Amino acid sequence: MMEFRHLGNSGLRVSALGLGTNAFGKRADEPTSTRIIHAALDQGINFIDTANIYAGTESERIIGQALAGKRENAVLATKAGLPRHDGPHGRGSSRYHLQQELEHSLRRLRTDYIDLYQIHTFDPHTPLDETLRTLDDMVSSGKVRYIGASNYAA
């Protein structure tokens, strides 16, 4: 039986084991990735972690397809901030980049909301208050339920 824990100080309960999906669409093809997702859900794993850059966005697309009809069984986490493309807004945690990437992730994941939206790494070129205001607005809009940070020093 799967053990569940609270995500930080929130009321959100996630499985003690999570499914990392960096290999989906790269080292694991789509049929294999889908089987892994379904097996994880069947075993009680509800936390699925991905990012907008994993396998050049393929991981999110595969997860979106695999969760068709099963979305309510998953706590879906994704990230943004690392380089997605060249150009002035292809990376970072500016309002412009994060809003653009959230919309793309929602489409690929075939969902109206992200359970946990994380900043993938600290962006020294964007004021932290801009990033936090953007994340707060995403939560207020209903497109994001919880926010977090990945690869940040304590």
What are the defining features of this structure?
154 residues; 7 strands; 2 domains; alpha/beta; two-stranded antiparallel ribbon; single chain; globular; 5-stranded parallel β-sheet
**End-to-end distance, in Å?**
33 Å
Which structural class matches the secondary elements?
Answer: alpha/beta
Shape, please? globular
Quaternary assembly: single chain
**Helix percentage range:** 25-40%
Topology as H/E string? EEEHEHEHEHE
Secondary structure tally: strands: 7
Q: Can you give the mean pLDDT?
A: 97
Kindly provide the radius of gyration, computed on alpha-carbon positions and rounded to a whole number of angstroms: 15 Å
Distinct helical segment count: 4
Give a quick precis of the structure.
The chain has 154 residues and is an alpha/beta fold.
How would you describe this protein?
With 154 residues, the protein is an alpha/beta fold. The chain has 2 domains: 1-46 and 55-72, no CATH class; 76-154, no CATH class. 33% of the residues lie in helices and 19% in strands. The chain contains 4 helices and 7 strands. It has helices at 30-42, 58-66, 95-109, 128-141; strands at residues 4-6, 13-15, 18-20, 47-49, 75-80, 114-119, 144-149. The strands form 2 sheets. Strands 3-4-5-6-7 form a 5-stranded parallel β-sheet. Strands 1-2 form a two-stranded antiparallel ribbon. Helix 2 links the parallel strand 4 and strand 5 (75-80). Helix 1 packs across helix 2 (58-66). The longest helix has 15 residues, at 95-109. The mean pLDDT is 97.
